[in-house]
């Protein structure tokens, strides 16, 4: 397949490598920074083009959007208008309003757009979803998600990415709905600045707890932190009427030292989330190109991205008000999490 | 030490056995049910007496109160008025108002009363508290407590015991404050009847999630369920600026079967919470009698019991209102959790 | 049941307590040391009697033999001659010849004798045996047993108990045969004095590895050490054509501390083997009295004790010669491990 | 660096990919099978050449030997004679005599040759070796190594590779010496054909247990199986006077399902040993080229490969004779495991 890449930064280069490794042609790369674009071009032979011209020229069958978050919506809208399928990193827009506009436009035009909620392609999370689907836990009652990052990202990134709830949260709000195949109803949330007071400048928090009620009554809890002293920590647990499913990242500790005082120390070669989730980006790309080839709808529709942002927005309001806050899912097709 | 026992039911008989095993004399047993009292009397040689007469006669140096929850406060108040030290099962009173009255009375009279929050004597929880105290996790940021029972208790017990928040919750609200040695500030809570609709008759829930803010900003989360399909499940996790501490019940799975499909099945001889926590009841009794002998204040003062009930009451109000609800700790001595 | 106890030392007192707790009458206690006998008598009301007189007087329906190892055979032989059933601690005799003589005598007289290989009553080992019996591992191919003690026993105990192979080894040689329900064929062994040179005085080793071939070809490996720096360590693993079963002691680590460097420290309240295996002594006594009451054969026949000693003797010869050494099982009824 | 590759089969292609990925030039590929050579040539641009001509032409600065085992020694000898450094897959020769001749020749000529015992580059094993070196276990007493493959290799491979002891065993015999930094003294071994009778044709076994005594008295045990029903299983444990170190492959089970009967099922996405050890081949290549560039001696000298084969040969003799068999390490430089 002949693809174009929008955004030649860190995430863009990752996509470029995956595109080549999967045997696709990277026909064009679009980035306002000529140096970044040139680097991707050198590595892959892609032509450096301005996005509008590239779409007008029909240079690519599909577009992968990996620009900074604030630029996603404009690039995606251009693809929609040109009738070119696209795979877009989350979030869809710079803010909820922008995301809503994009989703509306895409729906009106019947556009083919996939949002890259790549954690859906993690094999462990996949095993959990299969288990729920097969009925291994029965009716879902309690869902717990932990996401604690290794370290606080730069303040500039926090501001541009949408902060704890839209940036980190979106992945896990989506996971909760996708794993249980349910839409959310309401949210209660609390946020704190416990170790990173400078986040006040971005009106953001370093630590948050969110309780989300799902359509059939199950309670989900999210515990988010921008910094776990011991490294990246992500866990999912789903309890229902018949059992429980759990998984964690990193999956385990590889080497054990049993000390003379009887304490067992378990250590593993450290891995970053980038290493850990690397296969999911390639898998998301495969799912995108495979669905296009077969004329199928996108595996993760735009609505899924919008839904994650709607939950983030409701959680933000709940932190501010201290109140249980409904999540407005009007217009969201349940299939975006339940397919 | 010469002790009397109030209440000869299941919990009373457990106390009777521990009293004898610890080498104390069980001088008297008080229970309105003559059959129950007779059974304890036969086992231990204790005299069957009415509580008022027993106190008047000075039959015991101290009293252990293990009657049904609704009768705790009256028995404790009688001990206070008679100037006899007592160890009382939680909750202190039939409702928060009764508990407040008892706490006030005990404070006015300078009474010696200990509330039996026995989980404080679990060795694993003790290891966690020591770890926090020694600074192993640094400044506490996130606390997670799971408490899921093996099965829903009889409706009559639910009604008399105070329900999910006062009965089960009290232990874990106390643990959260005691492990971190902090008072609470506010609570957000959600409750559901997911599998036990008949709890509506007791205005109670089978599943609840509670987020508690502590004095220094740390966030605690509680996930309570009246029925885990796989058995009793209690876990505590404390993350801070320097690391994380975790423990769980049952502690582990003893036997592993690795199947031909590569799946490892881990199973343990089942143990009930009664077996698991049996040593904590004996340890609580030891702590009570030892502190009396040495003329020390009670290791778990009445204020600790009242604090747990105050959190439960605030959580109940938050479930009803959907709002973040302050916990009123006026008059609670921080030493009751921080000593 | 009316029982007598031979031996009022540490192990004898344990049996005395179990006898009383199980509701049996301890009618008599026999110990040449009047002080030891008096202590058991005071605790239980048992009469102090000389063994021969006790048997002649018909003072007990059955006898529990818990004297020092060197005295086992004489006491057991007296019971055989008097026609009184007995439960005997292992080893049967001071040496293999004494054990053979006792087994021969018991067989000739059709005596009821049970040897107390108490690890057979551990619930975890029981789960493993059930798994093998149900075919969970298919045809057994590899068996691994680890037994490392917390500390080197006193030299006097080593000398009287039969040393590493007869004392510690017997339990595990029996377990290997009992778990797989097979007789042994041959053994290869190596012994070392790595940290306890004074064991040379007892011609014993502190560390040994033994490979045992079973009747159907499976290979068992034993790794024995008199001192694990981190505490008692016992593990069993059974691999076959369809899967693997594993268990370990202590079963698990209860509390986990994840440090800032990502290392997870797991610690448990320490337990000694005496605490860990305490329930197995009571269970062995129950099995003994229950089989007597129902007129059934002893659950662990004398042959099982002899078999364990035969393996120990062959292993000792292999250490000395460096050669694969057959285990002579002529006359051993396979039912003693396979029932 | 400009490299040549001898052998364009499965292992050769792996090396070719690693050479390119590491940024080296693959100048030439030598394989008698023109199709295999052509495939590597197409992928990498390497010239297809006959080994002798390639060496004569000075086409490469160093050679990677990945031909079938029987052809290793001839290729390595050619490199030695041409004075070209080489990295050779194990075993060195078709049999012990061939390996000895190669080692002798290399020593005489002062050749630069590295044997690719790639497990030394596994990060977990590396953590264990570092732990031993730092004294975390104190004086080593007991070493246990498990190596059970997923399935029996084809009989043709068994015959050409040297069988269970030379093929699989060599890696683990080397690990035992390298982890403890000690030479071996003597070996006791037992071999069985439990599930693969056709191995009789290769005079080989499917299951073996080997006990190896190290220079300072520590006992090592190896349990080898050609087929674990649940998949590849490799484990290492080292106990000493101060503690224990352990690691296992696969390191852990990622997803846990706790069933309604309380059994926890742990499953992980399956990984083959090829996936698991993939990074070690790249790391071995890096170590080889880095040492060449810096003018350092080879990180794994030929002597290490010879030592592993000497242990394998002694183990084979012990299986045949049933006797403890010395390992002749005359002429082996201890530095090959202790550096």
UniProtKB/TrEMBL annotation, chains A, B, C, D:
**GO-annotated molecular function:** nucleotide binding; oxidoreductase activity
Q: Which Pfam families would you find in this protein's record? A: GFO_IDH_MocA (PF01408), GFO_IDH_MocA_C3 (PF22725)
Residues in Gfo/Idh/MocA-like oxidoreductase N-terminal domain copies: 2-114
Q: Return the InterPro entries for the record.
A: Gfo/Idh/MocA-like_OxRdtase_N, GFO_IDH_MocA-like_dom, NAD(P)-bd_dom_sf
What is one process in the GO biological process aspect for this record?
Answer: NADPH regeneration
* Protein name per Swiss-Prot or TrEMBL: Gfo/Idh/MocA family oxidoreductase
Say which domain of life the source belongs to.
Answer: Bacteria
Family assignment from sequence similarity: Belongs to the Gfo/Idh/MocA family.
């Amino acid at each position: 397949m002949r693809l174009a890449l929008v955004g030649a930064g860190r995430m863009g280069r990752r996509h470029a490598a995956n595109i080549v490794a999967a045997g696709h042609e990277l026909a064009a790369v679009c980035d306002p920074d000529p140096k970044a674009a040139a680097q991707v071009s050198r590595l892959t032979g892609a032509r450096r083009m301005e996005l509008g011209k590239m779409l007008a020229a029909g240079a690519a069958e599909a577009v992968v959007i990996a620009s900074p978050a604030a630029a996603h919506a404009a690039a995606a809208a251009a693809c929609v208008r040109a009738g070119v399928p696209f795979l877009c990193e989350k979030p869809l827009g710079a803010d909820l309003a922008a995301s809503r506009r994009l989703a509306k436009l895409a729906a009106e035009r019947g556009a083919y757009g996939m949002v890259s909620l790549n954690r859906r392609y993690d094999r462990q999370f996949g095993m959990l979803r299969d288990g729920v689907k097969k009925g291994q836990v029965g009716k879902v009652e309690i869902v717990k998600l932990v996401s604690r990052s290794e370290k606080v990202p730069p303040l500039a990134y926090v501001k541009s990415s949408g902060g704890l709830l839209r940036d980190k949260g979106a992945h896990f709000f989506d996971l909760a709905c996708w794993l249980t195949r349910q839409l959310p109803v309401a949210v209660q949330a609390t946020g704190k600045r416990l170790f990173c007071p400078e986040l006040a400048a971005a009106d953001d928090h370093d630590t948050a707890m969110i309780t989300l009620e799902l359509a059939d009554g199950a309670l989900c809890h999210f515990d988010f932190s921008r910094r776990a002293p011991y490294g990246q920590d992500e866990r999912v647990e789903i309890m229902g009427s018949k059992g429980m499913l759990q998984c964690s990242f990193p999956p385990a500790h590889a080497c054990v030292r049993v000390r003379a005082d009887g304490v067992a120390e378990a250590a593993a070669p450290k891995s970053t989330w980038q290493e850990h989730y690397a296969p999911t980006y390639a898998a998301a790309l495969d799912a995108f190109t495979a669905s296009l080839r077969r004329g199928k709808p996108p595996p993760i529709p735009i609505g899924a991205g919008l839904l994650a942002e709607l939950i983030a927005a409701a959680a933000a309001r709940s932190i501010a008000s201290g109140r249980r806050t409904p999540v407005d899912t009007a217009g969201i097709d349940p299939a975006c999490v339940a397919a």
